[in-house]
Amino acid sequence: MRKLFILILCLTFLSGCMGIVRTTTTTFHGKGHEQRGSIFVAAADAQVNGSLEFSHYKQLVEEKLITIGYTLSPTAEKADFIALVAYGIDNGKTSIVSTPIFGQTGGGTTYSSGSVYGYGGSASYSGTSYTMPTYGIVGSSTSSQTEYTRAIALDIVDAKSIESGKPEKLYEMRARSTGSCSSINGVFDEILEAMFKSFPGDSGKSQTIEVPWDGSC
């Protein structure tokens, strides 16, 4: 029982130092999705294309696209394909969480003393006894916990089809993650990693992927 208690403490300690980002991803394949060529990454919301934040995300997406066979185009006009990226995070949902407190529930060293009376008078005694300690739940504590839903969407579109006014998508990639980090920047890399973990996967089939996270948010 003591070993079990120590193991629980160790796991609790480690969980505070390590983390994961759990993401559910879904990829849909369009006609001709096996094609590769030059690609240009742009924000789905044109207003953020010039932001420093998007520039950071754009570089991360470009690195992933290179690993699956695309080459980068310096401009959208020269690209064979356009990758449109959208991302966001909600305001969070707060809940009350009860956490058990583990401790010693019995056993250990017991001290005793007293007096013994008899026909011949009285005598004092003292001593100790030891029994194997037991461990278990000795109480609980409550705390509030807020979880945020973070999402990334990535569409790869044939560039010529955009010019014709009838965009043809080769891929629709969707990723959704829920966790304690309230900043999309803090987990963007991990969610993106999950999106490309088994690319392209089965069209329309969702999968949940866990990616190690250092806890920085």
TrEMBL record:
It comes from the Bacteria. InterPro entries: DUF4136. PROSITE patterns: PROKAR_LIPOPROTEIN. Residues 44-201 form the DUF4136 domain. It holds the Pfam family DUF4136. Keywords: Signal. Gene3D superfamilies: 3.30.160.670. Residues 1-19 form the signal peptide. The keyword Chaperone does not apply. This is DUF4136 domain-containing protein. It comes from Sedimenticola selenatireducens.
